[in-house]
Specification:
Specifically methylates position 2 of adenine 2503 in 23S rRNA and position 2 of adenine 37 in tRNAs. InterPro entries: Aldolase_TIM (IPR013785), Elp3/MiaA/NifB-like_rSAM (IPR006638), Methyltransferase_A (IPR040072), RNA_MTrfase_RlmN (IPR027492), rRNA_lsu_MTrfase_RlmN/Cfr (IPR004383), rSAM (IPR007197), rSAM_sf (IPR058240). It holds the Pfam family Radical_SAM. This protein has 383 residues and is of the alpha/beta class. Helix content is 32%, strand content 17%. The protein has eleven helices and eleven strands. The strands form two sheets. A nine-stranded mixed β-sheet has the order 1-2-3-4-7-8-9-10-11, with helices on both faces. 47% of the residues are buried.
Length: 383
């Protein structure tokens, strides 16, 4: 069987807005300490009648001790604590449901936001690292055919603080030893939860800045331990390339040919497979960071051996050593026609990529018994 010829491209608009909700207006999250820059925090604290140095004390409690509980801020006068927390730390997320898998080392949380919107995060503890998968939007407007979140449509973007609060909560849980293995630190954050991260560019980049800022103004994480995923918003990839922050870029490709990718990932009608791979390769050229290609293997849809060959050829055409491929056995969504590839087909797909010299690792599919696909718990409540 031969690969289909490339479909003609739709002219690319200069700018696209994927951030507008189709569900009607939602409230703006209240201002939170995390939404502010260090300079703005000084102003906010003094506006509340407190000395400016309180801003650093608050930062230490939040980013180092991972708490916004006034009772834990014993180095502040009680009256000051109450004023500052009431004014700068409004509750943004409420845990509505928590599910565990993998002997308690995988924890999925459904969060209700202040306006009733719903998002999910997944905390995964491994032997030598702990990883949190965060959501950046409630729902998603990009309508990928097989995605649970895409069935919701876009509800709204998350604020910086709403994303960071997912991180702080996970860090606190690990520090308190709530997952098996004893107390530990959160080492990795991946923007692979609900939503298209680069469609909420400002909040995601501000979140990354909070993650990598040294204590006490941030969590002090390494940019190399942060992964930002995208289905291929090429202008946003180019913008990220120029930020000077060496996060790992993960591109959710899912098909190497435009005919199929147009169906699976509709944004491909704006930016083709080749344009997306070119943008990813340029990211590698500028940052030196190897790019991850994410590829959900879907039975009898995109798992043919010739598609593995075509993907390997396209990646190698840009250069060697710049990319790593992560085939992912699809986590089926109830009621969907899409399902995971047969194991032998998966093995053949991987073998063909490796035959092209592409480093390839099957992604660990944790949490399959707890509605592991992002958006499934939220979809149960929304749909």
């Amino acid at each position: 069987m031969t690969a289909p010829t490339e479909a003609p491209r739709v002219p690319n608009p200069v700018a696209l807005d994927f951030s507008t909700s189709r569900r009607g207006p939602r409230g703006k999250p209240p201002r939170h300490y995390v939404d502010l820059t260090p300079e703005q925090r000084l102003v906010a604290v003094t506006d509340l009648g407190e000395p400016a140095y309180r801003a650093k004390q608050l930062a230490t409690h939040y980013f180092t001790h991972l708490t916004a509980d006034p009772a834990a801020m014993t180095d502040l006068p009680k009256a000051s604590r109450d004023v500052l927390v009431a004014g700068l730390f409004p509750p943004l997320l409420t845990a509505a449901r928590t599910l565990q898998a993998d002997a308690g080392t995988t924890v999925k949380t459904l969060w209700h936001l202040f306006d009733g919107a719903k998002v999910e995060s997944v905390l995964m503890r491994y032997k030598h690292r702990s990883t949190l998968c965060v959501s950046s939007q409630a729902g998603c407007g990009l309508a990928c055919s097989f995605c649970a979140t895409g069935r919701l449509g876009l509800i709204r973007n998350l604020s910086t603080a709403e994303i960071v609060e997912q991180v702080r909560s996970a860090g606190r849980s690990l520090a308190d030893g709530e997952l098996p293995g004893g107390p530990t630190r959160l080492s990795n954050v991946v923007f692979m939860g609900m939503g298209e991260p680069l469609a909420n560019y400002k909040s995601v980049l501000e979140t990354v800045r909070r993650l990598i800022a040294p204590n006490p103004d941030g969590f002090g994480m390494s940019a190399r331990n942060i992964t930002v995923s995208t289905v291929g918003l090429v202008p946003a990839i180019e913008k990220l390339t120029n930020e000077g922050i060496p996060v790992t870029l993960a591109v959710s490709l899912h098909a190497p040919d435009d005919e199929l990718r147009d169906e699976l990932v509709p944004v491909n009608t704006r930016w083709s497979v080749d344009q997306t791979i070119d943008a990813a390769y340029h990211y590698f050229e500028v940052t030196g960071r190897r790019v991850s290609i994410e590829y959900a293997l879907i039975r009898n849809i995109n798992d043919q051996g010739w598609r593995a060959d075509l993907l390997g050829e396209k990646l190698n055409a840009r250069g060697k050593g710049w990319v790593h491929c992560n085939p992912i056995p699809l986590n089926p969504v109830p009621g969907s026609k899409w399902t995971a590839s047969d194991p032998e087909v998966e093995d053949e797909f991987v073998a063909r990529l490796r035959a092209h010299g592409i480093p390839t690792t099957i992604r660990d599919t944790r949490g399959s018994d707890i509605d592991g696909a992002c958006g499934q718990l939220a979809a149960e409540e929304e749909l």
